[in-house]
Design a protein that fits this description.
By secondary structure, the chain is an alpha+beta fold. It has one domain. Helix content is 34%, strand content 23%. It is built from 3 helices and 4 strands. It has helices at 35-49, 55-58, 66-72, and strands at residues 8-10, 12-17, 22-27, 63-65. The strands form 2 sheets. A two-stranded antiparallel sheet has the order 1-4. A hairpin with a 4-residue loop joins β2 (12-17) and β3. The radius of gyration is 15 Å and the shape is globular. The termini are close together.
Length: 77
């Protein structure tokens, strides 16, 4: 990645109606490593799909930026 390339990704959810299902793109700061994590993420997404909670409310002010990316990957160092 070039130095100075903007990288700011806020928490968000985008829903797209497909022919066979609803497609959901969920961008949140959550690590999924186990089956229990997958279940918890699915429950989280369902709550938001039913509009029982707002992504912005749960992750207010969260932005994944270049500093976070560099800290997580050997390519960024």
């Amino acid at each position: 990645m070039r130095s100075g390339t903007p990288l700011n990704v806020p928490a968000s959810m985008h829903i797209e109606q497909l022919k066979w299902a609803a497609g959901v793109n969920l961008i949140v700061p959550v690590e999924v490593r186990t089956k229990e994590d997958v279940r918890a993420l699915a429950k989280f997404a369902k709550r938001h799909l039913r509009q029982q909670a707002a992504i912005a409310g749960e992750f207010a002010g969260y932005v994944y930026g270049l500093a976070e990316w560099r800290a997580e990957t050997p390519l960024g160092k």
